[in-house]
Specification:
The chain is mainly alpha-helical. The protein contains 7 helices and 6 strands; from the N terminus they run ββαβαβαααααββ. It has one domain.
Amino acid sequence: MFPATFPSRDRIDWLPVDKLATVLLDVLDTVSSPSTNPPAPNNGTQVFHIVNPHAASWHADFAPAVAAALGVQTVDFAEWLSALRTSADDAIASGNIDLDGNPAIRLLEFYEDTAVVDSPRILTSLKAEDASPALKTVGPVGEEWLRVWLEQWGLAQAKPKHGYMELL
């Protein structure tokens, strides 16, 4: 099972690391150039929120795609969290804690804390977009990025098919 919702984390504004690297170089180039970078007010510190300006939704985009790729059903976050808690308690009681088989147990406390948070975190990327042409043109999390991440996380295997990598 996979959580269909994720309280306070519905906004998926992730970037692949290769895109992030390009954006960071753009920002560094911008802040290093006096002609494009006016002095910052106060102490000179500047903050750039480097997040994907084209966010996807956990419940509408991410969860259905992950569940389909893994061949599992989506359930409400509370139901998923309860099942995870039961799994962790059973593992502790039996003395057989398989973190490789159920890695979400490692983050159980984080998930429990997340369940009670009401307000989502939203970071504005406008300043970073002004500094990075690459950030302005990056797209939202999509199937291609998701496939790669699932493979990298060890949740799916890829096999070549028609010149593309397709999940098993």
